[in-house]
Amino acid sequence: MRQLWSMLLAGMVMASWSVAAQAVEVRTAVLRIDYPTLAPISRYDERPDDLGFAGAALAAEDNGTTGQFLGHTYETETVAVPPEEADAALAALLDEGIDLVVILARDEDLLRLANQAGPEVLVLNALAEGDALRGEACRANVLHVAPSYAMEADAVAQFAVFKKWSRWFLIEGSNEADRAMGEAYRRAAEKFGARVVEDRIYEDTGGARRTDTGHVMVQRQLPVFTQDASDHQIVVAADATGYFAPYLPFHLWDPRPVMGSAGLRPVSFHGAHEAWGATQFQTRFDALAGRYVREEDYQTWLALRVIGEAVTRTGSADADAIRDYALGDEFELAAFKGVPVSFRQWNGQLRQPILLYDGRITASVSPQDGFLHQSSPLDTLGIDEPESTCTAFQ
Amino acid sequence: MRLAFLSACCLPALLAAAPAAANKVFVSNERGNTVTVLDSETWAVIEEFDAGNRPRGITISPDGALLYVCASDDDTVRVFDTETYEELYTLPSGPDPELFVLHPSGSPLYIANEDDNLVTVVDTESHTVEAEVPVGVEPEGMAISPDTRWVVNTSETTNMAHFIDTGDYAIKHNVLVDQRPRYAEFTDDGKTLFVTSEIGGTVSVIDMKGDAPELVHKIEFEVPGVLPEWLQPVGAKVTSDGKWLFVALGPANRIAVIDTESYEVVKYILVGQRVWQLAFTPDEEYLLTTNGNSNDITVIDVAAQEAIKSVPVGQQPWGVVVAPD
Known about the structure:
The complex is a heterodimer.
Chain A: E1 2-7, E2 24-33, H1 53-67, E3 72-81, H2 86-95, E4 100-104, H3 107-117, E5 122-125, E6 142-144, H4 149-162, E7 167-173, H5 176-192, E8 195-202, H6 214-226, E9 234-238, E10 258-260, E11 265-267, H7 278-289, H8 295-314, H9 319-326, E12 342-343, E13 350-351, E14 354-357, E15 362-366
Chain B: H1 2-17, E1 24-29, E2 34-39, E3 45-50, E4 55-60, E5 66-71, E6 76-81, E7 87-92, E8 97-102, E9 109-113, E10 118-123, E11 128-134, E12 139-144, E13 150-155, E14 160-165, E15 171-176, E16 181-186, E17 192-197, E18 202-207, E19 214-220, E20 236-238, E21 244-248, E22 254-259, E23 264-270, E24 275-280, E25 286-291, E26 296-301, E27 306-312, E28 317-322
Antiparallel strand pairs in B: 1-2, 1-28, 2-3, 4-5, 5-6, 6-7, 8-9, 9-10, 10-11, 12-13, 13-14, 14-15, 16-17, 17-18, 18-19, 20-21, 21-22, 22-23, 24-25, 25-26, 26-27
């Protein structure tokens, strides 16, 4: 699937320019890997064909509207491929001379593609959440717009600690990504003074996730799986691959709130979020896409807005110039989350508030009040500079 | 007999007190869907009336007879009689009107349409749309230069002040400012324009004296014990002599008082919670602030630069306007 959005707005006739207006053509691409996956547990979570791309289309409109006053034009190519075709698809984009690429792929694929892209190309990660990508496997040519597992786990931990719910029963999936997420929750508990008093792994045995009588099995199995746990106040689910967490609420042995991959979920954005002017974003997105926004859309939109903001301020579409500006002290961007977002200069991660979403509304937003930091409260979420193992940005 | 005597004795005294005339203060309550009316002498609430869904921007005709209210969720501007509080008619506004500015003559009304990236120009006499001007993403702040040559619109996602020529409705200049520009305010002599940036945390000072507007300074804010992220400039008003600029700092619950000679903040006045928009009384003795999260307005003594009183109004007060003398 290939599509081309082009915002070649000739612009209105301007008698004079207060901002330096020089023609700049900004060519970007969004590369999405479509993995073969089982159907999600809930129909509400089915993947729309334009996942991520709808965010790109909105960003193209937003950037284009701003660009028309400056003589800047934006063109975004979107490519969706199966995993085995990703390398060739990236090579084709690079051959076209595109050096600003937003990628929606899993950790290992993102890393391989970033290596393939090389230092002359700026990659913006709009999906992969693994902490290794921001740590020992960090790459100087990658900016992470997607939040990390550590940021999300810290967002949940701060809220739980604020509630004084510090005894956690952690239930992890058995896949590699689930374990990485589980590790982030263990680290978050330690960081904020909570305790994982019970830790169990819910095996992924494969097979269809939805059957007509699935809930009957779940209703019998899950209480048994969760019985005899040490005394706990909440259940924390680490299910990065999405095969069991939605079943947990209401099927536990002990009646407890669920947080993490089900119940109260840490997200970068969701379709019901309205605070801080977000209603306007939602209205624009809904009109364009005909559906509610997903995290992948928001993160792709935000990645392209980072590029747009850097081009607007620097007047350059050069990948190096954009990277330097984004990582500089001057960079800040409004992202409908109440405070400006910016990049961590030690690993290229976008610092941002994390919304705690109950499936209907924004229940809370982290960082929570009272979690202090010497430079930015946003840096209480995720791996901070002293702990970072990333060396590519030094 | 005694009554008559009393009247005779006190009437002149009452008349003598009259020059400090009471003016009606109108506050739009975003969540309460009402407008609260107060008396600027006693600060008592006179009335609260329904004003449509999500009333935000609020202004008044030069003769004080008509109250204009952006009913954002109704996609319309509602017009009320300032004596009877009856709704007289609505004006076509385009979708989601938030802020507007009225030409000093009383027409037209220039409206920012957040959802459509447009500024809509509405004739307030014929009730028709005179023009639609495409601007940047999420237009918000609106101001008109004292000589009426320029209408300025700020766009929140594009981060520009757009200068619309009132003669032909073409944009002639754009000035890039900091993140999420919310409000634009001219000095009375038209020589300076201030633009507040909520997320950027600054006020841009734009010099209007040359051929083209020029960004000359950015005012920054700092309050000990308050996170810099919470210093979010929104509403702003400058005194008619151009000497003092007052800026509402949103969730920092403070009004910054700025000396416009030095651009230094000389004082932060603590007011109610999430302070949003500001309005002077016509004599500039008082400045009123709407405090969205504490559901009240704060009255500031302008000369003393001190908050003297808070008055509860409706739910989530947003905009405020004071009737002219």
